[in-house]
Design goal:
Length: about 170
Amino acid sequence: MGRGPADAGQIDVRLATASDLALLTALSLRFFDYLKATVADAFWEGAEPRADLARADFEAAFAKGDLVLIASLAGAPVGYLYGRVEPAYVRESPIPSMGYISHCFVRDEARGRGVASALAQAAERWFQDRGIEHIELRYSLANKAAAAVWTKLGYAPQRLTCRKSLRRTGNP
Ligand SMILES: CC(C)(COP(=O)(O)OP(=O)(O)OC[C@H]1O[C@@H](n2cnc3c(N)ncnc32)[C@H](O)[C@@H]1OP(=O)(O)O)[C@@H](O)C(=O)NCCC(=O)NCCS
């Protein structure tokens, strides 16, 4: 899955197993740190990473048969993708379910080499093999890299999440 002479090595994508729990937890905590540092959002203010919660999420994902992929570059694990099958967004739709990509993270030093593209391609095949015809994902508007990458990979914005803050101003 390499992308030519500029690549430092071969990209391999595989399904994760329970023996990857420590690795997945470590990668997802880095993802957490990245989002906390870059996404200007009230819900990230004061949020602290929790290894126990991250690990429990992956344990639950394995128990449900969700999609957990690990990508390696030149033999070293550098990224992961977590996705699942969800009910269609319109209950009455003749389309019963859709794919949802919840996390996609690539370590800093491995970015820009096609790792996320390889993860997305593998996820798309996994969903297609299950008869899924549409995949959704979300990213914050502040995450310019995510916007650029997902657009390049063919994910077009469809709906917008709107939020109004009800916080009281500081005046007594
Ligand atoms: C977003 C992220 C997963 C992309 O991973 P990556 O392995 O660097 O992506 P790829 O190398 O496969 O790039 C895919 C395409 O997007 C482009 N791209 C990658 N990073 C980019 C950036 N920061 N700005 C603009 N375009 C970018 C690439 O050039 C490539 O396009 P091409 O195929 O036309 O060359 C990675 O930057 C990351 O982990 N970011 C932090 C976590 C995050 O924000 N995840 C997304 C929210 S779910």
